[in-house]
Design brief:
Layout: H1 7-25, H2 35-38, E1 45-50, E2 59-60, E3 68-69, H3 71-83, E4 86-91, H4 94-98, H5 101-104, E5 110-111, H6 119-124, E6 126-127, E7 132-141, E8 156-160, H7 164-172, E9 177-181, H8 184-192, E10 198-202, H9 203-210, E11 219-231, E12 234-235, H10 240-256, H11 258-267
Parallel strand pairs: 1-4, 1-5, 8-9, 8-10
Antiparallel strand pairs: 2-3, 6-12, 7-10, 7-11
Length: 271
Protein backbone atom coordinates (compact mmCIF):
# COMPACT_ATOMS: atom_id res chain seq x y z
CA UNK A 1 0.00 0.00 0.00
CA UNK A 2 1.43 3.36 -1.01
CA UNK A 3 1.99 5.98 1.68
CA UNK A 4 -0.23 9.01 1.21
CA UNK A 5 1.26 12.45 1.82
CA UNK A 6 -0.29 14.46 4.64
CA UNK A 7 -2.72 17.26 3.88
CA UNK A 8 -0.20 19.77 5.23
CA UNK A 9 2.47 18.51 2.84
CA UNK A 10 0.09 18.68 -0.12
CA UNK A 11 -0.89 22.24 0.78
CA UNK A 12 2.73 23.30 1.11
CA UNK A 13 3.61 21.73 -2.24
CA UNK A 14 0.71 23.43 -4.02
CA UNK A 15 1.68 26.75 -2.46
CA UNK A 16 5.27 26.40 -3.64
CA UNK A 17 4.10 25.51 -7.16
CA UNK A 18 1.85 28.55 -7.24
CA UNK A 19 4.70 30.81 -6.20
CA UNK A 20 6.94 29.29 -8.85
CA UNK A 21 4.33 29.83 -11.56
CA UNK A 22 3.88 33.44 -10.46
CA UNK A 23 7.63 34.06 -10.65
CA UNK A 24 7.88 32.47 -14.07
CA UNK A 25 4.96 34.46 -15.43
CA UNK A 26 6.48 37.83 -14.47
CA UNK A 27 8.55 37.79 -17.70
CA UNK A 28 10.81 40.54 -19.08
CA UNK A 29 14.38 41.46 -18.19
CA UNK A 30 15.54 44.22 -15.87
CA UNK A 31 18.76 45.56 -14.45
CA UNK A 32 17.03 45.84 -11.07
CA UNK A 33 18.29 43.34 -8.51
CA UNK A 34 17.35 43.02 -4.86
CA UNK A 35 19.74 44.41 -2.27
CA UNK A 36 20.26 40.92 -0.86
CA UNK A 37 21.38 39.62 -4.26
CA UNK A 38 23.81 42.55 -4.54
CA UNK A 39 25.46 41.77 -1.20
CA UNK A 40 25.06 45.34 0.06
CA UNK A 41 26.20 46.22 3.57
CA UNK A 42 22.86 48.01 4.07
CA UNK A 43 19.95 46.36 2.28
CA UNK A 44 18.38 48.66 -0.29
CA UNK A 45 21.19 51.22 -0.16
CA UNK A 46 24.36 51.40 -2.27
CA UNK A 47 27.01 52.81 0.08
CA UNK A 48 29.67 54.65 -1.92
CA UNK A 49 33.08 55.94 -0.81
CA UNK A 50 34.73 58.88 -2.57
CA UNK A 51 37.65 61.24 -1.92
CA UNK A 52 36.03 64.70 -1.99
CA UNK A 53 36.57 67.31 -3.34
CA UNK A 54 37.90 66.34 -6.74
CA UNK A 55 35.84 68.36 -9.22
CA UNK A 56 34.43 67.76 -11.73
CA UNK A 57 34.27 64.10 -10.67
CA UNK A 58 33.08 64.63 -7.10
CA UNK A 59 32.39 67.66 -4.95
CA UNK A 60 30.23 68.76 -2.03
CA UNK A 61 26.71 70.01 -2.71
CA UNK A 62 24.40 70.62 0.25
CA UNK A 63 21.44 71.06 -2.09
CA UNK A 64 21.78 67.55 -3.56
CA UNK A 65 19.95 64.58 -2.06
CA UNK A 66 23.24 62.80 -1.35
CA UNK A 67 25.11 65.96 -0.35
CA UNK A 68 27.47 65.53 -3.32
CA UNK A 69 27.69 66.31 -7.04
CA UNK A 70 29.96 65.55 -10.00
CA UNK A 71 30.45 63.21 -12.93
CA UNK A 72 31.08 60.12 -10.79
CA UNK A 73 28.12 61.02 -8.59
CA UNK A 74 25.76 61.37 -11.56
CA UNK A 75 26.90 58.07 -13.06
CA UNK A 76 26.51 56.27 -9.72
CA UNK A 77 23.06 57.77 -9.19
CA UNK A 78 21.99 56.47 -12.61
CA UNK A 79 23.40 53.02 -11.86
CA UNK A 80 21.59 52.94 -8.52
CA UNK A 81 18.31 53.91 -10.18
CA UNK A 82 18.67 50.96 -12.57
CA UNK A 83 19.40 48.67 -9.60
CA UNK A 84 16.43 50.12 -7.70
CA UNK A 85 18.49 51.08 -4.65
CA UNK A 86 19.21 54.32 -2.80
CA UNK A 87 22.63 55.97 -2.66
CA UNK A 88 24.65 57.03 0.37
CA UNK A 89 28.05 58.67 -0.23
CA UNK A 90 30.87 58.85 2.32
CA UNK A 91 33.86 61.18 2.05
CA UNK A 92 36.99 59.03 2.46
CA UNK A 93 40.74 59.38 2.13
CA UNK A 94 42.19 58.25 -1.20
CA UNK A 95 44.75 56.08 0.61
CA UNK A 96 41.94 53.97 2.10
CA UNK A 97 40.24 53.76 -1.28
CA UNK A 98 43.18 52.82 -3.51
CA UNK A 99 44.50 50.24 -1.03
CA UNK A 100 41.16 48.42 -0.84
CA UNK A 101 40.87 49.07 2.90
CA UNK A 102 37.54 50.89 2.65
CA UNK A 103 35.97 48.17 0.54
CA UNK A 104 37.38 45.15 2.35
CA UNK A 105 36.52 46.49 5.82
CA UNK A 106 32.89 46.99 4.76
CA UNK A 107 32.96 50.78 4.98
CA UNK A 108 31.23 50.86 1.59
CA UNK A 109 29.98 48.70 -1.26
CA UNK A 110 31.57 50.66 -4.08
CA UNK A 111 34.36 53.19 -4.61
CA UNK A 112 33.62 55.99 -7.07
CA UNK A 113 36.57 58.35 -6.98
CA UNK A 114 38.14 58.85 -10.41
CA UNK A 115 40.23 55.78 -9.63
CA UNK A 116 42.40 54.25 -12.34
CA UNK A 117 42.24 50.49 -12.82
CA UNK A 118 45.74 49.13 -12.21
CA UNK A 119 47.10 45.57 -11.79
CA UNK A 120 48.17 46.42 -8.23
CA UNK A 121 44.69 47.61 -7.26
CA UNK A 122 43.11 44.60 -8.95
CA UNK A 123 44.96 42.41 -6.46
CA UNK A 124 42.94 43.96 -3.63
CA UNK A 125 39.62 44.80 -5.30
CA UNK A 126 37.30 43.89 -8.13
CA UNK A 127 36.56 46.53 -10.76
CA UNK A 128 33.72 47.38 -13.07
CA UNK A 129 34.33 47.82 -16.75
CA UNK A 130 36.19 51.05 -17.45
CA UNK A 131 33.81 54.02 -17.55
CA UNK A 132 36.21 56.90 -18.31
CA UNK A 133 39.46 57.19 -20.30
CA UNK A 134 42.09 58.76 -18.06
CA UNK A 135 44.28 61.53 -19.45
CA UNK A 136 46.92 63.47 -17.50
CA UNK A 137 47.79 67.14 -17.89
CA UNK A 138 50.12 69.93 -16.81
CA UNK A 139 48.64 73.09 -15.27
CA UNK A 140 50.92 76.12 -14.84
CA UNK A 141 50.72 79.85 -14.34
CA UNK A 142 49.59 81.56 -17.54
CA UNK A 143 52.66 83.82 -17.48
CA UNK A 144 55.11 81.21 -16.16
CA UNK A 145 56.89 80.54 -19.46
CA UNK A 146 56.48 76.78 -18.88
CA UNK A 147 55.28 75.20 -22.12
CA UNK A 148 55.82 71.47 -21.59
CA UNK A 149 57.00 68.77 -19.22
CA UNK A 150 60.55 69.26 -20.54
CA UNK A 151 60.58 72.71 -18.90
CA UNK A 152 60.13 71.41 -15.34
CA UNK A 153 63.75 71.00 -14.27
CA UNK A 154 64.09 72.75 -10.90
CA UNK A 155 60.36 73.55 -10.88
CA UNK A 156 58.11 72.60 -7.96
CA UNK A 157 55.38 70.34 -9.31
CA UNK A 158 52.39 69.32 -7.19
CA UNK A 159 51.00 65.79 -7.49
CA UNK A 160 48.50 63.76 -5.47
CA UNK A 161 49.83 60.82 -3.49
CA UNK A 162 49.19 57.40 -4.97
CA UNK A 163 47.81 58.64 -8.28
CA UNK A 164 48.68 58.19 -11.95
CA UNK A 165 49.80 61.83 -11.93
CA UNK A 166 52.43 61.11 -9.29
CA UNK A 167 53.71 58.09 -11.21
CA UNK A 168 53.77 60.01 -14.49
CA UNK A 169 55.68 62.92 -12.95
CA UNK A 170 58.25 60.58 -11.41
CA UNK A 171 58.75 58.85 -14.75
CA UNK A 172 58.73 61.82 -17.11
CA UNK A 173 59.33 65.14 -15.30
CA UNK A 174 63.12 65.01 -15.34
CA UNK A 175 64.77 67.24 -12.75
CA UNK A 176 61.46 68.49 -11.30
CA UNK A 177 61.04 69.08 -7.58
CA UNK A 178 57.98 66.86 -7.04
CA UNK A 179 55.82 67.85 -4.07
CA UNK A 180 53.29 65.25 -2.93
CA UNK A 181 49.91 66.25 -1.49
CA UNK A 182 47.10 64.15 0.02
CA UNK A 183 44.42 65.64 -2.24
CA UNK A 184 43.68 68.10 -5.02
CA UNK A 185 42.32 70.59 -2.50
CA UNK A 186 45.75 71.07 -0.93
CA UNK A 187 47.49 71.00 -4.31
CA UNK A 188 45.37 73.74 -5.82
CA UNK A 189 45.67 75.90 -2.72
CA UNK A 190 49.46 75.53 -2.90
CA UNK A 191 49.48 76.56 -6.58
CA UNK A 192 47.40 79.66 -5.86
CA UNK A 193 49.69 80.54 -2.94
CA UNK A 194 52.82 80.18 -5.11
CA UNK A 195 54.13 77.23 -3.07
CA UNK A 196 54.30 75.11 -6.23
CA UNK A 197 54.58 76.23 -9.85
CA UNK A 198 52.65 73.47 -11.61
CA UNK A 199 50.17 70.65 -11.07
CA UNK A 200 50.36 67.34 -12.90
CA UNK A 201 47.10 65.40 -12.62
CA UNK A 202 43.86 64.36 -14.36
CA UNK A 203 42.93 66.62 -17.26
CA UNK A 204 39.32 67.43 -16.23
CA UNK A 205 40.45 68.51 -12.77
CA UNK A 206 43.10 70.84 -14.18
CA UNK A 207 40.60 72.15 -16.74
CA UNK A 208 38.29 72.96 -13.82
CA UNK A 209 41.10 74.99 -12.22
CA UNK A 210 41.94 76.67 -15.53
CA UNK A 211 38.33 77.82 -15.81
CA UNK A 212 38.04 78.92 -12.17
CA UNK A 213 36.28 82.31 -12.47
CA UNK A 214 37.87 83.55 -9.24
CA UNK A 215 41.36 83.35 -10.81
CA UNK A 216 40.72 85.45 -13.94
CA UNK A 217 42.73 83.20 -16.26
CA UNK A 218 45.78 82.97 -13.97
CA UNK A 219 46.39 79.32 -14.87
CA UNK A 220 46.35 77.27 -18.05
CA UNK A 221 46.78 73.68 -19.18
CA UNK A 222 49.81 73.59 -21.48
CA UNK A 223 50.13 69.86 -22.19
CA UNK A 224 48.14 66.64 -21.97
CA UNK A 225 49.32 63.02 -21.75
CA UNK A 226 47.43 59.94 -22.95
CA UNK A 227 48.22 57.11 -20.54
CA UNK A 228 45.83 54.55 -22.02
CA UNK A 229 44.36 53.98 -18.57
CA UNK A 230 40.70 53.88 -17.53
CA UNK A 231 38.75 54.70 -14.39
CA UNK A 232 36.66 51.95 -12.83
CA UNK A 233 34.29 51.54 -9.91
CA UNK A 234 35.88 49.31 -7.26
CA UNK A 235 34.02 46.64 -5.28
CA UNK A 236 34.87 43.55 -3.26
CA UNK A 237 36.43 40.92 -5.50
CA UNK A 238 34.11 38.30 -4.02
CA UNK A 239 30.96 40.34 -4.68
CA UNK A 240 30.53 39.21 -8.27
CA UNK A 241 26.78 39.86 -8.09
CA UNK A 242 27.32 43.58 -7.59
CA UNK A 243 30.15 43.77 -10.13
CA UNK A 244 27.98 42.09 -12.78
CA UNK A 245 24.99 44.31 -11.96
CA UNK A 246 27.08 47.50 -12.19
CA UNK A 247 28.57 46.38 -15.52
CA UNK A 248 25.10 45.64 -16.89
CA UNK A 249 23.83 49.04 -15.72
CA UNK A 250 26.80 50.78 -17.36
CA UNK A 251 26.17 48.87 -20.57
CA UNK A 252 22.50 49.84 -20.51
CA UNK A 253 23.42 53.50 -19.91
CA UNK A 254 25.71 53.50 -22.93
CA UNK A 255 23.03 51.83 -25.05
CA UNK A 256 20.20 54.16 -24.05
CA UNK A 257 22.31 57.34 -24.33
CA UNK A 258 22.11 58.33 -20.67
CA UNK A 259 25.85 57.86 -20.12
CA UNK A 260 26.70 60.12 -23.08
CA UNK A 261 24.30 62.77 -21.81
CA UNK A 262 26.07 62.83 -18.42
CA UNK A 263 29.50 62.78 -20.08
CA UNK A 264 28.69 65.69 -22.38
CA UNK A 265 27.38 67.78 -19.50
CA UNK A 266 30.87 67.71 -17.96
CA UNK A 267 33.39 67.15 -20.74
CA UNK A 268 31.98 68.10 -24.13
CA UNK A 269 33.83 71.44 -24.00
CA UNK A 270 36.62 70.40 -21.61
CA UNK A 271 39.52 71.07 -24.00
Amino acid sequence: MQNRPSRALVAATLSALALGMTACSSGGSSTSTSGNDLGLISDGTLTVCSDVPYPPFEDFDKSAATGFKGFDVDVVNSIAAKLDVKVEIKDSSFDALKSGLAINSNQCDLVASAMTITPEREQAMGFSDGYYDSEQSLLVGADSGIASISDLSGVKVGVQKGTTGEAYANDHASGADIVVFPSDGEMYAALKAGQVDALLQDLPVNIDHQNDPSQNGAFKVVETYDTGEKYGFAMKKTNTGLIDAVDKALGDMKSDGSYQKIYDSYFATAK
